């Protein structure tokens, strides 16, 4: 019957993986905070893709709307977004998750080093957890997150028919300015850490 979940009876597994990854990120945050006095993560969001979005994605990809498609063909039933203050923290969290014994990185897209043409920046990683559940991790700085939210918002405002080109250009310019500020902030952070290190010696 059409009322059955596309996830079949696998929702508890998905929830468990989501919880597990959030717990791992929490552990990393605590350890880094203890060691360096600074939390690498600003905030963290997690979701299980809704029934409607999953069905819509199956259709868009030309896949049958089955549990098989949802769990093995599509890899973002579990989604985690990690927002960090600094660029280096994106890679810190990436390395930590990639090093977990029962998580295998099956795909990575570094849209920070290679921004999308529209200016989108973020680090995407697909993890295969316990050999059977996929999770998509998006890692980005606060600035990158701010930009992505605004861009996402505008993309779904259907009234934007005129002057779209100019808007796209302006958005791209904002993305690049934010990226440049992120680099400056990283430099300031590194300088502060260096001073602290020298004083501790
Ligand atoms: P799907 O997995 O089908 O979405 O396509 P893909 O694997 O080619 O996409 P990718 O891994 O590049 O991006 C997946 C997710 O990243 C999207 O669902 C968005 O959440 C986010 N994303 C990617 N590109 C953009 C963008 O240009 N703007 C915004 N706001 N978000 C983006
Ligand atoms: Mg994807």
Descriptive report:
Keywords: Kinase, Transferase. It comes from Bilifractor porci. This protein folds into 2 domains: about 130 residues, 2-Layer Sandwich (Beta Polymerase, domain 2), CATH 3.30.460.10; about 55 residues, no CATH class. The protein is flat and about 65 Å long. The chain contains 6 helices and 5 strands. Helix 5 runs antiparallel to helix 6. The longest helix has about 35 residues. Guanosine-5'-triphosphate binds next to helix 5.
Architecture blueprint of SSEs:
Blueprint: H1 11-36, E1 41-48, H2 51-60, H3 67-73, E2 78-84, H4 87-99, E3 103-110, E4 123-129, E5 133-141, H5 142-155, H6 164-200
Parallel strand pairs: 2-5
Antiparallel strand pairs: 1-2, 3-4, 4-5
Helix pairs in contact: 5-6
Guanosine-5'-triphosphate (GTP) binds at residues 76, 109, 116, 118, 120, 124, 148, 151-152.
List keywords for this structure.
201 residues, alpha+beta, Beta Polymerase, domain 2, 2 domains, five-stranded mixed β-sheet, 6 helices, binds magnesium ion
Order of helices and strands: HEHHEHEEEHH
**How many distinct beta strands?**
5
Q: Classify the helix fraction into a percent range.
A: 40-55%
CATH class of the largest domain: Alpha Beta
Q: Which fold name corresponds to the CATH topology of the largest domain?
A: Beta Polymerase, domain 2
Describe the strand arrangement of the main beta sheet, using strand numbers: 1-2-5-4-3
Mean pLDDT score: 95
- Number of H/I helices: 6
Please compute the radius of gyration using only Cα atoms: 19 Å
Small-molecule components bound:
guanosine-5'-triphosphate, magnesium ion
